Amino acid sequence: LQKLIHLLQATDDPLIQEQALITLSNSAAFSVNQASIDIIRNLNGLSVIGGMISSGVPKVKEKALNALNNLSMNIKNQEKIQVYIPQVCRNIESASLNSDLQLAGLRLLTNMSVTSDYHQEILHSIPCFLHLLSEGTERTQIQVLKILVNLSANPAMTRHLLRAQV
């Protein structure tokens, strides 16, 4: 894991970055790998992976979002991942409609919105979510609905949800 994280920091090759991100994502994907999740966090891997969501290569962004999604099942990781929520929202808004990149961002926000801890960071994207709900494919709509359901469970979000411009 340490070598993969160092590899991500050392290379500009998008193909190598994608493969390293896929491997890190897979290592965090299963609950039996709690040790891997902790190791990635302790090696500053969350910030290295989080930095990749600003890449100019859509596939690298997508793989980074998938890795953060798998790592976001841990509360300690969520505390560190939350700083990337504004960039994730920007990626969702600027990505092609129904693209894998857009879906990866929506899946990450679904996990990050399960508790109300980070709802404020997601708040400004409600109009985008409503647009995706009306224009997206079924897969996109399902992901958006999951986020909106999570937000609607928070009474503090009611006014924002009802006043959102579509």
From TrEMBL:
Q: What is its main location?
A: mitochondrion
- Which key words tag this protein in UniProt? Membrane, Mitochondrion, Mitochondrion outer membrane, Transmembrane, Transmembrane helix
Q: Does the keyword Membrane apply?
A: yes
Topology term for the membrane:
Single-pass membrane protein
Boundaries of every Armadillo repeat-containing domain copy: 1-166
Q: Which GO terms describe its cellular component?
A: mitochondrial outer membrane
Q: Name one Pfam family in it.
A: Arm_2
- Protein's cellular compartments: Mitochondrion outer membrane
What's the protein called, per UniProt? Answer: ARM10 protein
Q: Which organism is it from?
A: Pitta sordida
Q: Taxonomically, what lineage is the organism? A: Eukaryota, Metazoa, Chordata, Craniata, Vertebrata
Q: What gene does the UniProt entry assign to this protein? A: Armc10
